[in-house]
């Protein structure tokens, strides 16, 4: 696939479209190596990845379920949402927790460190799009920004969680994901 096609066919594919089949570790390592080539200011390379699978994934999902219970007001609580955390263990191959590590000396504005991490995630996302059957998406939601999760993830004071990238192999009858964009001209100003 040419890069233009890869960019436009990259989709958020949700965990219920995954088969549960494991992705080989070497393949995950290759995606992470491509993520590692993202641009970054002053070579701080601020992305930090925690890769969960098997029992690790199970623990992560049960912790997120606990946090969901703790932080969701009773009137907003959905048992179906709660159950989804357990189901993800069966569907997902790997969950990559995406963290930013801010430069200890503060040489780079924090927004730039987060921007660099987002570039790394895009590299990973485009890389998986090249494959026949590996897909995923970047999941956030308010729980990922809690101190509770940061503690559980053992993040340092100068680190923040930016979300979780779920990866899996497409199931046979996976529904094709669609997406649209408003024309870029609506978001562009030309100053000649
Ligand atoms: C920083 C970031 C956070 C996101 N968080 C979520 C999320 O929590 N839940 C979700 O369903 N999608 C999430 N997404 C995926 C977007 O919903 C998705 O990219 C958007 O709908 C466009 O679809 P596409 O990726 O298939 O083009 C996130 C995307 C980004 C870039």
Record keyword descriptors for this entry.
16% strand; NADH Oxidase; alpha+beta; 4 strands; four-stranded antiparallel β-sheet; 192 residues; binds flavin mononucleotide
Topology:
Layout: H1 3-9, H2 25-35, E1 47-52, H3 54-71, H4 79-91, E2 94-101, H5 110-129, E3 134-139, H6 147-152, E4 159-169
The structure holds flavin mononucleotide.
Flavin mononucleotide binds at residues 11-12, 137-141, 163, 177, 179.
CATH class category: Alpha Beta
CATH architecture grouping: 3-Layer(aba) Sandwich
**Main sheet strand line-up:** 1-2-4-3
> In terms of quaternary structure, what is this?
single chain
Kindly provide the radius of gyration, computed on alpha-carbon positions and rounded to a whole number of angstroms. 18 Å
Our estimate of the beta-strand percent is: 15-25%
| CATH fold-level label | NADH Oxidase
Mean pLDDT: 98
The global form is globular
- What is the tally of helical segments? 6
Query: How would you classify the helix and strand content by structural class?
Result: alpha+beta
The succession of helices and strands, N to C, reads HHEHHEHEHE
Stretches with pLDDT under 50, minimum 5 residues: none
User: What is the β-strand count?
Assistant: 4
The termini sit apart by 35 Å
The name of the CATH superfamily reads NADH Oxidase
- Largest sheet, described in full? 4 strands, antiparallel
- The overall number of domains is 1
Small molecules in complex: flavin mononucleotide
Helix content: 25-40%
């Amino acid at each position: 696939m040419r890069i233009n096609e890869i960019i436009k066919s990259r989709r958020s594919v949700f965990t219920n479209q995954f088969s549960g089949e494991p992705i080989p570790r070497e393949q995950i390592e290759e995606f992470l190596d491509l993520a590692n080539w993202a641009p970054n200011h002053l070579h701080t390379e601020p992305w930090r990845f925690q890769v969960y699978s098997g029992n690790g994934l199970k623990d992560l999902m049960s912790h997120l379920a606990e946090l969901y219970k703790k932080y969701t007001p009773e009137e907003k609580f959905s048992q179906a949402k709660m159950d989804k955390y357990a189901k993800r263990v069966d569907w997902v191959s790997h969950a990559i927790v995406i963290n930013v590590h801010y430069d200890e000396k503060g040489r780079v504005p924090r927004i730039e460190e987060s921007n660099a991490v987002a570039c790394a995630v895009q590299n990973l996302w485009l890389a998986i799009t090249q494959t026949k059957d590996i897909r995923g998406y970047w999941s956030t939601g308010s729980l990922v920004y809690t101190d509770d999760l940061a503690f559980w993830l053992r993040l340092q004071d100068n680190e923040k969680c930016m979300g979780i990238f779920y990866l899996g192999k497409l199931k046979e009858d996976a529904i094709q994901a669609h997406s649209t964009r408003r024309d870029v001209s609506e978001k562009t100003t030309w100053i000649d």
